[in-house]
Amino acid sequence: MAERKGSLRSYILSRIILAIPMLLIIITFVFFIMRVAPGDPVAAMLGPHAPLAYKEKLREELGLTLPLYQQYLNYLAQVFTLNLGSSLTTGDSVATDIFVYYFPATLELTIFSTIVALGVGIPLGKIAAVKRDKKADVVIRLFGIIIYALPIYWFGFMLQLLFGYYLGIFPTGGRLSPGITPPPHITGLYTIDSLLTGNISTFLDALWHLALPSITLGLILSGVFIRTIRVNMLNTLQSDYVQAARARGVDEKEVINRHAYRNALVPVVTIMGMEIALLFAGAVLTETTYSFKGMGYLLVWSIQNRDYTMVQGAVIVYSIIIILFSGIIDIINAYIDPRIRY
Questions:
Q1: Residue 80: DSSP 8-state
Q2: Residue 168's Cα: distance from chain center in Å?
Q3: How many CB atoms lie within 10 A of CB 203?
Q4: Architecture of domain 95-341 in CATH?
Q5: Contact status, residue 162 vs residue 212, Cβ threshold 8 Å
């Protein structure tokens, strides 16, 4: 047991050590890409007709006149002291903007999208496995392939057009309706904060605005879970212990639910970890489509306005989240299966 724990500690330590150069590479890549890309952040801030002397003064104040390597070293020093700098367009703290206003919106969208993806993908995958090669299986597999291949922005526009414009069932953008005051900031998640403060009308309105974005992203991701559950259930149903259970006269429903279904859910943990990157990448397109002011919306807006520090801050936060979730999933898998540690 001591040996097992020791090897697990070594594995966790190695994952932490590997995460540092990965993050450094991402920071470096984004820093230099933003500097060589066309466009002038000062011109974006002041407009094309601002006096040249004022532009040069502002460049000097922002440190943009320093040699590139000096800008890079200064930025690294800031990042590793947990200072993401100030926005070039608004002057606000990048960390405050991200963690107080934008990241909670993306987290809320991610949670509800995951609920949709699991709520659709797991039951359909189970049905497809049980009804193998029958009409239901063919239809579900076809649905899973098509839905996963759809471009998120196109699918989002179609849902907006149908349920927002023609039917008028759901709003086509935003987090709350005009005139609705956001709940007091506790977690930044409107649904949670409105419940914590007892504001049911705001909770329902926030949920109403989350419906289409969550369905868009959740249905796209459900295709992965459909295939995963189906394949693992089919493998389990053909295993020796399932065949032995059937030979003992165990009811087929119990064989499916107790043996095949439960074991098929284990790989879903791994798949969820692998899909975290796709989930946040999909959030960029979903938030842009629905004008949902989360991290993806902020990232696109900052790129358009050449806001170096905001883009870098957003990418760093994205990277930390993805690396963190990937590491957690790896550690869980290493705990379950000791072979992964070696």
A1: T
A2: 28
A3: 19
A4: Orthogonal Bundle (1.10)
A5: no
Residues in the chain: 342
Q: Which residue has the higher pLDDT, 170 or 10?
A: 170
Q: Phi/psi zone of residue 47: left (φ > 0), alpha (ψ -120 to 50 degrees), beta?
A: left
Task: Give me the residue label for tokens 């590793």.
Answer: 80
Alpha-helical runs (H) found in the chain: 2-36, 41-46, 52-62, 68-79, 94-96, 103-130, 135-149, 152-159, 190-196, 200-237, 240-247, 252-254, 262-290, 295-304, 308-336
**Rounded-to-10 torsion of CA 208, 213, 214, 218:** 150
- Model confidence, pTM: 0.81
Which residue type, as a one-letter code, is found at position 321? I
> Tokens 């946040």 map to which residue?
280
Nearest C-alpha neighbor of 160 from the set 288, 339, 300: 288
Question: 212 and 172 in contact (C-beta within 8 Å)?
Answer: yes
Summarised one tens digit per residue, pLDDT across range 168-194 is 899 988 899 988 889 998 999 999 999
